[in-house]
Amino acid sequence: MHDAKTSLYHRRFLDAAIVRDISLAEREKRPLALIMLDLDHFKNVNDQFGHGAGDEALKALADILKKTSRDSDLICRYGVEEFIAIIPNMSASQAVDRAEVWRKQLEKNTVNCDENAIKITLSAGIAFYPDHGKNAEELVLCADGMRYKSKRSGRNQVTIA
């Protein structure tokens, strides 16, 4: 159920959990935010400083996500450098605030690896059930589209649907 590098839930766990969380949000008529984020220029970090540095960058972001999330939030490693947070009962402004906290904390952080001080940033996209997707696939696609919009707009930012 957990990713070995970050200790976060992995994608297979997410695939089942998101269906449950959407059903619960529908039944309780409460919002459900999905935040998709990834590390900017992650390939460059791996290429320039090695995979150990990339692993440390992943761990740094995972630590920030864990420390600033509620017990009811579900934080998962979705891809190589992609993460998804499923956050129940959170308004749009609260979701943006949360993603901005993550972005700012990572931006201030320095990853140290083999005497290299590496600065890392993230790009994030936010979507809400049911406004931006009626099922898990639609919701993830919308958040992913917003994440790409953040990247196209210069990276190190949060975009909401």
Write a structural description.
Strand 6 (122-129), helix 5 (136-152) and strand 7 form a beta-alpha-beta unit. This protein has 161 residues and is α+β, with helices and mostly antiparallel strands. The two termini are 29 Å apart. It has a single domain (11-151), classed as Reverse transcriptase/Diguanylate cyclase domain (Alpha-Beta Plaits). The chain contains five helices and seven strands. It is globular, with a radius of gyration of 15 Å. The model has no long low-confidence stretch (mean pLDDT 95). The strands form two sheets. Strands 2-3-1-6-7 form a five-stranded mixed beta sheet, with helices on both faces. A two-stranded antiparallel sheet has the order 4-5. This is diguanylate cyclase. It is an enzyme of class 2 (transferase).
Give a brief rundown of this model.
The chain has 161 residues and is an alpha+beta fold. Helix content is 48%, strand content 24%. It contains five helices and seven strands, in the order αβααββαβββαβ.
- Alpha-beta content class: alpha+beta
- Whole-number total of structural domains: 1
- What is the string of SSEs from the N terminus onward? HEHHEEHEEEHE
CATH class equals: Alpha Beta
Low-confidence residue ranges: none
Q: What form results from the Cα inertia axes?
A: globular
CATH topology heading? Alpha-Beta Plaits
Radius of gyration: 15 Å
Helix content: 40-55%
- Give the biggest beta sheet: 5 strands, mixed
CATH superfamily: Reverse transcriptase/Diguanylate cyclase domain
Compute the number of strand runs: 7
- Report the β-strand fraction as a percent range: 15-25%
